[in-house]
Amino acid sequence: MSALGEFEQLVLFAVLRLEQDASGVAIHDEILSRTAREVSPGAIYTTLGRLEERGLVRAVVIEAATARVGRPRKHYELRPAGAKALRDSYANLQALAVGILPKLNALAKQS
Amino acid sequence: MIRPGRWLAAVILRGPDAPYIRQDLEEIYARDRANGLSAARAGWRYTRLALASSASLLNAARVNMRNALLLDLRQAARALVRDRGFTAVSLGTLAASLALCIVVAVLVNAYLVRGLPYPESDRLFEVRYGAPGDPPVAGMEKLDWQSLRDVLELSIAWDLDMFTLRGVEAPEFVQGSWITHGYSQGFGVRAALGRAFEADDFNAGRPMVALISDRLWRGRFGGDPSIIGRTFDAFVSDRPDEAETFTIIGVLPANHWHVTAFTEVLAPLRVPAYPYTVRVRDGVSPLVAGERITALVRAGGLKLPREGWRVELHSMHDRYVEQIRPLLLAVATATALVLLIACANVGVLLTLRATRRRREMAVRQALGATAGQITRVCAAEPLLIGAAATALGLGLASATIAAIAPGIGHYLGRQTPGGVTALGIEPATLLLAVAAGIITIAAASIVPIVVTRRTPVSVATSGGQKGATDGPAQRHARTVMIAVEVAACLTLLVGAGLTIQSAVAMLRVPMGLEADGVIVGRYSLRQRSYPDAAAWSGFYQRVLARSGEISSTDGVAFTNSWPLQAPAARDVGRGESAEFPLRAGIVGVSPDYFSVLRIPLHEGRAFTMADRIGTEPVAVVSRTLAARLWGTGSPVGRQLRIAPAPNSPPSAAPRMLTVVGVAGDIRHAHTDNDLADVYLPIIQSPFPGAFVYLRVTDPLSAERDLKRLLSSIDGEVAFGASRPLAEILDQQRAGARLLASLLVVFAVFAATLALVGIYAVVAYTVKQREREIAVRLAIGADRRRITRMFIGQGAVVLAAGLILGVGGALALGRVLRSQLFGVEPADPLVLLGTTMAFAACGLLAIAWPARAAASLDSSAALKD
């Protein structure tokens, strides 16, 4: 299994946070509000499509009748394999980042 | 302001997720508006996000497509590995024919397309003074050639010469040239070491300088790096009185190449010369330049051979390849036919294979595969075969070129322009090879792809493919492919038949002499030591008197005439008449000439050592000349009159000779039809001599003994390496033999492919119609009638192909015309014989599987 890319991690974190409400627009808003980074819905859907193929997320289509907004929507849920992949990626990142913040700050100040 | 964004989103967002994305965009827009953002800004955000989404979707689609293609290719590769027989046949066929095409393309490029390896070579023209056969005009070198500077950029002249290099070692006899400054510039003479010629080197009175070849530098001078400035002494035929001293100013590059091989020593020509070749100025037509030269010569008050005499310019490159152009075009045509046959053959194989896969494709269609996806799956196998065949073909071609490059000049009778190293696969040839590979495989896979794509889904649900036959379009496609194969194949076979016939005719031409066991060598004597005929004669007599010292030899003969080349001709007539009704070749020979070459003497005697200067002038005539001059009467004892040479003074009288013998006719080449020759005794007539023939059993020791004998008589005699006469004769036939053997190989390859193709199609049709045949048999059909039915259907296709092929063969005959000897391009025997033979083989290829149809077990077939 290849490691997760940075954007894939962002999307998976958003899906995890949103729990039952992880639609495309919700993921877009979540990423925008937490990272101040605007990503296109197209990028979110293609990334989720790829993650779905790898068995990391599951797509659930909610028909118009039951959808909150009255239109058919697609929601995503994290699958156990996705949770494991995200955990491992994050753990790796953390392991590398431990104690590095002061140094980063100092370097950033120099420039 | 949302409208443009919505329109854009509707147009550019495609795929299953597009509705969700558009919905999300709408939601974001609505929220922006609710949060108080202006319609313009919210609309702009909508558009921006729609564009970014589209880019993401496109990127993902591209990756998906690539992955799907890779998957198809992987599957195709696995399928090809499983079906090794099909893969080997189709890959081998395509790779071999592509390799053939590449090799021929390299040759055509090197000889016919690229031009000669000289700067501005397209402006180099050979100057032809008068028509062939016109005697040279004397005094042209004194004309004011500078006055043509407005049309001629360079005047190029060279004088071929043999240089006898002297030194501590034995004298070495090498080919060289005296060249003008125009030669140096026009042929781009460079020096790898030292310097090339400069204008000052051509001024009379300057010390004599020379450029030497890389071979001479490495050999005779031991690759001495400080060679520049060193001197060497040499005798040259043009300055025979004194050995000249040459200062070496440079060494030519190892790949220095010229249309003649006389490049071991290049020295400046310092006497006036008229141009043999010119480089015309840019924009000046050769016609205009030719007219200007004609006008200059006419205005010079020189004696011209005839009214209407004029100068013509011929492209130097065209002249160089004149002889081999038809040969290479014939080979190129044959190669194109082979590729066509290979393409049709692989097309048939792919079609049969595709038909076997119809069910799989129908299932894919039923499961929702699009037409594009089906095409991709169908194209994957041909694509892999094509790519592998192109790569394999290139590899095969490079190996073949490396193997044939050193000998190809010998076989074609012309050295490769630019030398052996100039033969190689250039980027343009590589591109051509790849294009040929793509076109061939594309042409071969059109029909199979169409066959599979048009498969109705019902085939998938039918019991299998056994009962299902192909549609008319598929049958027609196969028929056309087989007919094309048969036609191309017959064309090639007839071409091969014609060239074989031609080669046989050449071999059958009686040359009139026996070349086997004879070696011929060239020698040169210093003119100062041999100033006149008496001196020459004395030399021959001394050598011939001691010829017993040469071991393993059965005779030594001298002649002044180039081996197997037409001798210089002069007007001849009967002694009693003042007229010269005939022209005959004049050859100076020593007494043993006839016995060494085994030329029969029909009447009278050969020359003896007694036929020397001071005795009665005698001649031996060829049988044809004897019959033409004296009819049935015996010429022995009659007088023969020979006109003076064209360049002799007007007061010169004809020579009168007594005929002492009649020799058999000999041909100097296969195409030599002028068998009228006069032989004069070399020790009686003033011939300088040049060649020595030895009939030998051991060429090496005979040559060594001859050299020793010559140097013991005269230490300054130079002797060039000897060659077997049979080899020279063989070289004359090399082009015809090469063409014949190539065409035979092509034709056999093509015939095998075509017959396999016919067999495969008939066998396939029989297999497809097994159920029908079984039903026919079950209700009492005659087995022989079933066989006849298949043979009849196959024969129609075969006949159509043969008719087309006869047309192709007649066209190829026209291409081959100039390469044929002793056989007509539309020789009915070859045409009919080849057609009948191929038709018989074709019928056999049809009958074999057709018989299998008749021997079918009907109950087993119906049970399946």
In terms of DSSP E residues, the strand content of chain A is: 5-15%
State the major sheet of chain B.
6 strands, mixed, barrel
Helical residue percent of chain B? Answer: 40-55%
Number of helical elements of chain A: 5
Order of strands across the biggest sheet of chain A?
1-2
**Shape type of chain B:** globular
Strand order of the largest sheet of chain B: 3-4-9-6-8-7
Overall SS class of chain B: alpha+beta
Fold and architecture overview:
The complex is a heterodimer of chains A (111) and B (864). Chain A is mainly alpha-helical and 111 residues long. Chain A has 5 helices and 2 strands. A two-stranded antiparallel sheet of chain A has the order 1-2. In chain A, helix 1 (6-18) crosses helix 2 (24-35) and helix 1 packs across helix 4. With 864 residues, chain B is an alpha+beta fold. Chain B has a 6-stranded mixed β-barrel with strand order 3-4-9-6-8-7. In chain B, strand 7 and strand 8 (239-251) form a beta hairpin. Chain B is globular, with a radius of gyration of 38 Å. The model of chain B is unreliable at 463-467 (pLDDT under 50). The chains are: A mainly alpha (111), B alpha+beta (864). The A-B interface holds A 23-25, 28, 38-43, 45-46, 49-50, 69, 71-74 and B 13, 17, 19-21, 23-25, 27-28, 49-57, 59-60.
